[in-house]
Write a structure and sequence with these properties.
Belongs to the short-chain dehydrogenases/reductases (SDR) family. The protein has 257 residues and is of the alpha/beta class. 53% of the residues lie in helices and 12% in strands. The protein is built from eleven helices and seven strands. Strands 3-2-1-4-5-6-7 form a seven-stranded parallel β-sheet, sandwiched between helices.
């Protein structure tokens, strides 16, 4: 059992399936009281009933107050897990502004809005935990999906900013950055996901394992695929070489489409 989460009041957004459901189950198994959020009310209710939690359906950007009330007025852990993947079209194709707007709103601004609502209480009492489900795309970039890659960089940057700004005031932040995970989002990623992500894809429970190890050891950056650390180092050490390698992957993908 991880002492830091026993008895905690936890909210997991986008928890009707995939990584979010795995996180909700793990927090509940560790003795936390969990609010399960999802746009799909039936899916949220099913997971909540399974774990003895509470379901709060709706947009992750707007449910902080309702989730707090459901937990008796306090949130100890907020898991900003809800996310969307959009390809946004390619240069030369009609720009799909709505895909960029949705990606920015869900993948970045939902995190910003939640933190804005939660921080006053956390700073007053000197404790709180913000868990951001980012993606290795937020560290490395993913072919074929500009809105997803760009906004996941934003999500990572915001989590990093929260950590460096508030850690001395008791706020703990964790950024989860997996590569492929066997979820509906992976299935929807098409041929790019099949080429880059599926060969090393892991289960949602593996992501939960990595997070709880990170909580126990008070780590900010959570890498369910440990090899991402080496890729990140290589990208920083020699950006030209890294970009050349990724361009080769891009060209390989183009031959399979």
């Amino acid at each position: 059992m991880v002492q830091a989460v026993q008895g905690a009041k936890v909210v997991v957004t986008g928890a009707g399936g995939g990584i979010g459901a795995a996180l909700a189950r793990r927090f509940a198994a560790q003795g936390a009281r969990v609010v399960v959020n999802d746009l799909d009310a039936d899916r949220a209710k099913a997971v909540a009933e399974e774990i003895g939690g509470l379901a709060v359906a709706g947009d992750a950007s707007s449910i902080v107050g309702e989730a707090r009330d459901a937990l008796g007025g306090t949130v100890d852990v907020w898991c900003a897990n809800a996310g969307v993947g959009r390809d946004g079209g390619e240069p030369g194709e009609p720009l799909r502004e709505e895909d960029w707007a949705l990606s920015w709103d869900v993948n970045v601004m939902a995190h910003v809005r939640a933190a804005h609502a939660l921080l006053p209480e956390w700073l007053e009492r000197g404790s709180g935990r913000f868990v951001s489900t980012v993606s290795a795309a937020g560290l490395l970039t993913m072919i074929g999906t500009a809105p997803y890659s760009v906004t996941k960089h934003g999500a990572y940057a915001f989590a990093e900013w929260l950590s460096l700004t508030y850690r001395h005031r008791g706020v703990r932040v964790h950024a989860i950055c997996p590569q492929g995970v066997r979820t509906d989002m992976l299935d929807a990623s098409g041929s790019a996901g099949d080429l880059v992500l599926r060969p090393t894809a892991i289960e949602p429970d593996d992501v939960a394992d990595a997070l709880f190890d990170g909580i126990e050891n008070d780590r900010f950056l959570i890498l369910p695929h440990p090899e991402v650390a080496e890729y990140y180092r290589a990208r920083a050490a020699d950006p030209e070489r890294w970009l050349g390698g990724m361009n080769r992957v891009q060209r390989q993908w183009e031959t399979t489409r």
